[in-house]
Amino acid sequence: MKVVSLRCAPFRIPLRRPLATARGLIKQREGWLVELRDAEGRCGFGEAAPLPGFGFESLAELRRSLGEAAAPLCGAEIEGPADGRARIASAVANAPGARAALDCALHDLAARVRGTSLAAWLASGGALRDPVATSALVAASLPDAAADEARTKVAAGHRTLKLKVGGGRDLARVAAVRDAVGAEIALRVDANGVWSERDAPRALERLALHAPAFVEEPLASRDPAAWARLRAVSPVPIAADESAPDVASARALLDAGAADWIVLKPAAQGGLAAAWEIAALARAADAGVVVTSFLDTAIGRASALHLAAALPGRVADAGLATGALLASDLAELADAAAMPLPDAAGLGVVPDPACFTRDLESAA
Length: 364
Ligand SMILES: [Mg+2]
Prior knowledge:
- The protein has 364 residues and is of the alpha/beta class.
- It contains twelve helices and 13 strands.
- It has an eight-stranded parallel beta sheet. It has a three-stranded antiparallel beta sheet with strand order 1-2-3. It has a two-stranded antiparallel sheet with strand order 4-13.
- The longest helix is centred in the N-terminal third of the chain and has 19 residues, at 96-114.
- It is globular and about 60 Å long.
- Residues 190, 216-217, 241, 263 line the site of magnesium ion.
């Protein structure tokens, strides 16, 4: 494929309601949308929108790295995503957000050129999971409201619910949700690194009463040895998210026997190829994977949906039904308990062309 242009457009999308995490409130998603166009007029898209905790570059550095990647891509005959990544390696060496956005756009374009879905491109002949079952986030902060929200999500077809914990009432919230939905529904708990190594075992014992499928990021520490010590005594399985921001850190955790599950966020881990590689390491270590959105727009969610559809092995319900958290979106991709792959080639979604012309203040 011959790439002829790389365009970037800023976006800023408020959340409908600020989302509470152990790292503070998330009020909006801000980043850059990327378009690679080939000589035939076909386009591949990607996005980058940094969040705290993943070692991202700043938005200004992100934009600069995207600009530096234009020269090695534009005018070049590119064999595929791996060739494209090699060409931009130095431009995005310290810019995981830019790397992920361009990797997604390269994959999207390659799949569109071949006339196949991105999932089929990734699976290269392997079976596809279609539709992809998704988990639902229970965001309400009070136990009764969380129980009501959980019932609503289960009625909509979700078989897995996720709760973020860290504050004083959280055990009561988890208990209320478990009571409301019964034993058949999987509960996923995300601590976002809130506990010390000393406090974590007791916290996990309390959570174990409500039988979570796993707890994400129980420790403030990212030391694989500390994770392995905790896993050895933990009554619940442990999942790595922010502690596995790239292939090397995921490998270190898995080599240490420190995680039962790895969360895959292509937007945060340097792209689809990196997430695919992490998944292969997890399979080899007998760990499962969970593909999860990065509170992405429809572009990033679609790329993660294709990844979840294509991965072989033990893959839990994907955390991709997060579009409704955003007040607006760059493209159309509806949340659902079972999300079908889009019919069109590549990502199967395209951003509203206005994204590339309107200014940032009106982008929301
Ligand atoms: Mg998490």
